[in-house]
Write a structure and sequence with these properties.
homodimer; three-stranded antiparallel sheet; Arc Repressor Mutant, subunit A; alpha+beta; Chorismate_lyase_/UTRA_dom_sf (chains A, B); 2 domains; elongated; DNA-binding; 7 helices
Chain lengths: ~240, ~240
DNA sequence: GAGTGGTCTAGACCACAAT
DNA sequence: TTGTGGTCTAGACCACTCC
């Protein structure tokens, strides 16, 4: 019965979200400000508290708001620019470009962890680890050297895989579903063995991605991926 | 009354989420499979449909599930590993490390767009652009050369800023709220002028971030940020 | 038409923060 | 103690898909 001049069929919780985003955009509500309580908004919009709750909860998960139980709802810090690098499985990435992927297995061994590795895995030095070195080719041009150490406790069958068919990445995603990862991206000159595998000059810059993946049962894998700087880059976009 | 052997104080909607994630992880439910309906789950867990709805809705926004009204709820495609690089304002980033930020303005000018730049901005060649080159120091060590071109139509007051106080990034975030960006990260050897500003060897690898930011009114800015490879990296984590 | 998800209500009890 | 957010219920009506 009550006609409220609402434009279309936008759900109420969405209208409340839009209203809040608008107030922030207009500068009426600034970073750190308290915004009206659930009850106040439910009265203002003449809706139930659950509906307001959903709007506020979603804006919180979208990092627009912070909520503190017992205290109130606050405008969050302005978001930093974030760059989302989607690190796909390299084989799939290459195929997606319509190119041919091929890999060479240069090393597959059991080896004892040195102190540095043990520390990264959270294990004691001397603990057994799996180690593989694989070179990935795109149309027969070397594009990545993947130097990977794997925790046998997490992926006991790692050594049994045929890495010409399945990439370590693909296998680990199935064997030890990842819960998260730490990574870094840097530019440096690669050691001689790496430059040889990539067939690049010894002084040529490499783009290096180091990644440590966490699964349920601990650190699953520590990998260093070397790419020739002049023929590889990470790219993408966000909005 | 009903004791259900629940471990702790985990909310019901969270337990349902965990249950679903577990079924997927165990392989009981595979990509594309239909999972039980809201009603079925609400009976299975002896909770109200709203609680199940919240669990499913959140998993959908987390890209674990797809929902189709009138049809059902499906297991989504397995996610790619995604690396979230948070590119903060460099001044803030340095201060967050407890270090001192300082910048040197090496160039601030109006200049006509060459063909390449014009194309990036979506303007015609010869269009006027603002251009700045700033070197950022962390504890008096050069850490970034920021070579930036700005669209005057979007940020007309760019030339009036005092870039020893406000970074271009800070100013642009306010003047032209960004809607998105395209970026790439690569490793290469910098031109002589850059290596001099960074005070590094001429053959030393640089980590280069190129970023094009979009605002409401078009391309706001095109920037190339050069970092010495041996003393700078992008890093972070995700889960 | 039966079944599914999408949304909403008007209460309720709780944990926590501020006072 | 009061006010806040966190969660949950047992219904309801709707839009959409599928048969």
């Amino acid at each position: 019965m009550a006609v409220q001049g609402q434009q279309t069929n936008v759900p109420i919780f969405q209208r409340i979200k839009d209203y809040i985003l608008n107030e922030i955009q207009l500068g009426h509500w600034r970073e750190g400000d308290v915004i009206p309580t659930e009850q106040a908004l439910s009265i203002q919009f003449a809706v139930s508290r659950m509906t307001v709750n959903r709007a506020l909860r979603e804006l919180t998960s979208e990092q627009v708001l912070n909520r503190i139980q017992g205290s109130g709802t606050y405008v969050a810090q302005q978001k930093y620019q974030a760059t989302l690098v989607t690190v796909k499985n390299i084989a799939e990435e290459i195929r997606a470009r319509g190119h041919v992927h091929r890999s060479e297995l240069h090393c597959l061994e059991r080896s004892k962890a040195n102190e540095l590795l043990a520390k990264q895995f959270g294990l004691r030095a001397g603990h057994m680890l799996f180690h593989s070195i694989i070179v990935h080719f795109e149309n027969d041009i070397a594009i990545q050297v993947e130097d990977r150490w794997v925790n046998p406790d997490v992926a006991p069958d790692y050594m049994l895989q045929d890495f010409s068919v399945v990439t370590p990445n693909e296998y680990l995603m199935v064997a030890a579903p990842l819960q998260g990862a730490d990574y870094s991206i840097e530019a440096c000159v690669a050691p001689k063995e790496i430059t040889e595998m990539l067939a690049i000059g010894q002084k040529e810059p490499c783009l290096v991605l180091k990644r440590k993946t966490r699964s349920m049962d601990g650190i699953a894998s520590v990998a260093t991926m070397w790419h020739p700087g002049h023929r590889y880059q990470f790219s993408g976009s966000f909005s």
